[in-house]
Fold these 2 entries.
Entry 1:
Amino acid sequence: MATTSASEALVGLPGVRKRVFWALGLGAFGLAFSLTTTAAYLPPLLHRFTSSGGLIGVILGAEGIFALTISPVIGPWSDGFHTPLGRRRPFMLVAVFPMGFCLLLMPFMPNLWTTVVIVMSFFFAYYLYETPYRGLYPDVLPPQTFGRSQSVQHIQRGIAIGIALVGGGLLFKVWRPAPFVLAAPSGEAEIFLATQLVDEARHAAFFDRFMAEVMALDGEDIRGRLAEMEQLMLPAWRTVFDDHLRETARRLLARPDDLDLFVEGIVTYHVVIEGVLAMTGQHQILKYLEAHDIYPGFCRGFSLVEQDEHRHIAFGVRFLKDACDAEPRYRAVIERKIAELVPVACHVFVPPGTEDPGDFMSYDYHSSEIYGFAYRALKRRMAVVGVEVPPAEELMPGPIAAPAIPHGAAAVAAQEMAPAP
Ligand SMILES: [Fe+2]
Ligand SMILES: [Fe+2]
């Protein structure tokens, strides 16, 4: 064994460079990061598949079995394992990639049992790495540096735990608003929905600017102003957005593989909220603003929002058509959701204080024109999907008017070009 002179200790152990301590500590960094991430975020991931706290406890507790069975085998084995790479590094090299791979895969597993297989593989790789890693310290460092090496190791461990808890928490928050992306049944749908999420974020920023600069709301920031707007919402808004959309999103987070639920979600979001409510409201408000020549900047921005919404609705219709072509039973799921939601949702068009939801004026339009526009658009889109919508009397809160008849030469041209009934 090497001896250390007192003078060597006094000049800061010139035999070992500082970066060796930090390089060795990286192992502890990786171990602490991966184990903290697993301990903190595996329970909510497993809750997607099971409500049994006992079962989740058993899965997490399995780590102890790996610690008890693998370490006593691998430790002594690595003591006598002489290779050009040393005694410990071959074990660590074999374990490090599966460990990282399993950690990356964990959040994307489709069901409980695949998650369990990945978690168990992770624990196996973890202990295959950990025991030789501990043995590496006395192999490469002189004993008089052990204390110092442990202090460096603990600094890196602390940083890793902090990153795992804060960074992991942020990722979880980012994930929450995207339940539709998370539950998308195909890569194509996933990519489209990711672009839609970005569109909706831009729309929110656009409307927020209007709320802040034109409506002069008191809220300090976008959340404050949204909370202020929420106070003004009518009960129909709450039913559609809180009871239906948020509830569907919450259930999708818990059951991302439930395709029936995903189809219901697309009907709620793309067909009813965007197709029936947003498109009708946007059309009506834009026509009103143009006719009265007000807010030209807002009109320009709102028209661009309208273009995005057309794209979103087209995706929803196409998705539902493909789903029904593959499984015709989805037509009944869609019909049921439309019959349940549209009659409630259309009360969003009714201005506060209106006595008769079947007879009112809003932005220069009579209720029958608004309901007519919304109903015809829905019927047209659902015809593409192959779904028969219930008659207007059942869906709309009031009578619907026929489309406005064009005048003069335009009318003649339109009649000539119209396909035979
Ligand atoms: Fe939008
Ligand atoms: Fe949208």
Note: The two ends are 100 Å apart (CA to CA).
Entry 2:
Amino acid sequence: MDLTWLHDLPPFNKDELSREARLGLGAARHMHDAKYVGNDFGYGVRELASHHSRDERTIRRWIRKAHDELTREPRFCKEKQCGARLPLGARTSRRYCDQHAGNAARVQRHRHPAKTRRARN
Ligand SMILES: [Zn+2]
């Protein structure tokens, strides 16, 4: 598994990552700093798996997730006039920022102009 992507990361806010990606980033940095690369990679993964009491596949999945979230193209809120950047760990199906993802904003988008009806008295 290649970890050279760790070198080229732009500044980022770790809090935006999903929990798994945060764990994966920690694992990847640990592997990288301990020079568990090439043939020693498997050894490093086993060590981390035992440390976290998890399966080796889980550790590898965390690292892949960290890689994916940290190297993907930035995505932006689809609401007109907003364009806020979505968090790094946002699901790929997510289209709106926090402000525009809520129920109120959703209703607003789908609401037709209300027909005014004369009140009966
Ligand atoms: Zn927005």
Note: Residues 77, 79, 82, 84, 96-97, 99-100 surround zinc ion (CB under 6 Å).
